[in-house]
């Protein structure tokens, strides 16, 4: 019985921490090459035209970000779909900030989850050992560390 109560307390603490992290993430400024990656900018178009970089070999072209097709593609597709979906619930400006906050919070959770799996050796989210490891790892990640995601 005590284990179940501790489990739900740990779960509530983890959810509260991730919720607070989401609040901080969604309030971060959007800068960097975000607009150039979504539209895409003129220098990034070559990445999408030749994802495998064959033009670099055949036509001796220079690429701005070699070996980053999938990161640019995921970034572009996410920000072309998620803010539009969120606009059903909020205004267009807030939808961009919210979608960035969602992405950062999911990545933060996944890093904490995988670190906790490596620490405990268990993969079940229903085990208190994994949840307690997640709670112990969580304070080492503050939202400012994940600002890189949307830059």
Estimate percent helicity: 55-70%
Low-confidence stretches: none
Over the alpha carbons, how many angstroms does the gyration radius reach? 19 Å
Q: Structural class per helix/strand content? A: mainly alpha
Task: Determine the strand fraction and express it as a percent band.
Answer: under 5%
Shape: elongated
Strand segment count: 0
The major beta sheet can be summarized as:
none
Order of helices and strands: HHHHHHH
Estimate nothing, just give the exact number of structural domains.
Answer: 1
Number of contiguous helices: 7
Distance between the termini: 46 Å
Mean pLDDT, to the nearest integer, reads 84
Can you give a write-up of this model?
It is a single chain. Helices cover 64% and strands 0% of the residues. With 151 residues, it is mostly helical. The protein is elongated and about 65 Å long. The longest helix has 29 residues, at 92-120. It has one domain (2-40, 70-150). Helix 1 (2-26) packs across helix 6 and helix 5 crosses helix 6 (92-120).
Q: Which helices and strands, and how do they pair?
A:
Blueprint: H1 2-26, H2 34-38, H3 45-49, H4 54-58, H5 69-86, H6 92-120, H7 128-137
């Amino acid at each position: 019985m005590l284990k179940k109560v501790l489990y739900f307390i740990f779960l509530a603490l983890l959810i509260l921490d991730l919720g607070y992290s989401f609040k901080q993430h969604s309030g971060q400024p959007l800068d960097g090459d975000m607009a150039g990656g979504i539209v895409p900018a003129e220098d990034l178009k070559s990445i999408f035209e030749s994802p495998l970089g064959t033009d670099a070999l055949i036509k001796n072209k220079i690429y701005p970000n070699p070996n980053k097709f999938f990161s640019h593609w995921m970034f572009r597709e996410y920000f072309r779909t998620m803010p539009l979906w969120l606009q059903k619930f909020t205004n267009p400006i807030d939808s961009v900030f919210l979608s960035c906050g969602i992405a950062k919070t999911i990545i933060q959770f996944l890093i904490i989850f995988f670190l906790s799996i490596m620490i405990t050796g268990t993969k079940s989210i229903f085990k208190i050992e994994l949840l307690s490891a997640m709670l112990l790892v969580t304070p080492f990640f503050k939202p400012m560390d994940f600002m890189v995601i949307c830059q």
